[in-house]
Amino acid sequence: MEEVILSTKYALDSISIYRNLLEDEVLSKFRKLLDYISKTQVELDGAINLYNEFFFLFAKSTSISLEEYILEKIIYDDNPFSSLGTNEKAASNDLNSLQLVSKLSSEVIKSKLIQIFSNSEYKYLIEKLPTWVSKIEVEESLLYQDNLKRIKGIITSNICWSESTKDLFEFHKNNGCGVFAHFKAFVWERLMGKGQLKGIDAPDPTLLSDLIGYELERSTVIENTLQFLNGFSANNVLLYGDRGTGKSSTVKAILNEYYSQGLRMIEIPKAYLTDFPSIIRELKNRPQKFIIFIDDLVFGDEEESYTALKAILEGGLESKTSNIVIYATSNRRHLIKEYFSERKGLLSKEPNDEIRAHDSIEEKLSLSDRFGINVIFSSPDQNRYLSIVEGLAEKRNLNINKENLYKEALKWAIWYNGRSARTARQFIDWLEGDLATREVTEYE
Fold it and tell me: How far apart are CA 302 and CA 285, in angstroms?
């Protein structure tokens, strides 16, 4: 028993490539617990407190077993092996050490404590300590549901975890490591004045199959994305047009369609475009492909972010990287606001007006041209609008006469926001709820 605890403690101490795991709050507390109960002088209150502190942190993690917790930390760790494939031997040794740690059960630790305090009248407190599951069997049917479950299954199916080193690196090659293995969508934010990536736990779940209409427009964006994923030259894309036509939904659905092929998306607020060089440095050596997503793009006069985007699109030395493209959406064809006073400047004789006013106007109008592909999403005419409504109704299996469907859809468009793909979806949402309510009422 004592030998098992000591060997587990030394296994944690011997970790090299996966050293980041020792900074994890759960494993750090586990290590402190093992260190403490391995000493010659152990106090009951100190041992119970450390045990419960570890258990509390582990229970908060929602992992079913200690083995699962450690596996997830291994899979998501960003280290020289997971990112570059170097130090394979050291990684193999660490995997075996971590396997040993994962096997240590709460029963062994409690038995050790009972042995230490066998003569204490408070021994019953140790017996009442909560327990955790060390290992959980992975059902074979779950092994291939997704890449994460698959690599977990491969590792646990080997007698020694080190036998899965090559499979693990292959997983990292296809799926990334660290946050890029954990999340498929990110937002760039600033904290204390410093820019950083924040993973999105539940990104918009829209799928391409959910989108009805605008198939031709969407196909252009999909084709460009597939070229990008296959390692061929691809363009930055501007999707512009009327509100509610599905521009943003198209970009989000493309992520959900292709993230398993290594696609990731980072949404950047327009105000943070000046951080683009920092974002490039963060992404350029990653094996994944990244879409930088800028939603609802429009600039006021003399904005710094306009200059930053212009430099990005023109492909400065630092912004040239083959694993990044920019997809932006806008309700405006001309992305920079233009004023009548500027056109007046073309004929002005005022000494403070710009001499080459025409050049400034042309520069403002040309920003959208710096995107390689422009895709126009226009408001649908009545026939197209009704076609979208009908397609959505069929997809949701709504039982309604087509004539009534069209009639109600047109009334909805008059009452709410006019004709658009968004209006069609909002109408179908209402109709589905209305039909369900009537069905319940009739049943009662």
Answer: 33
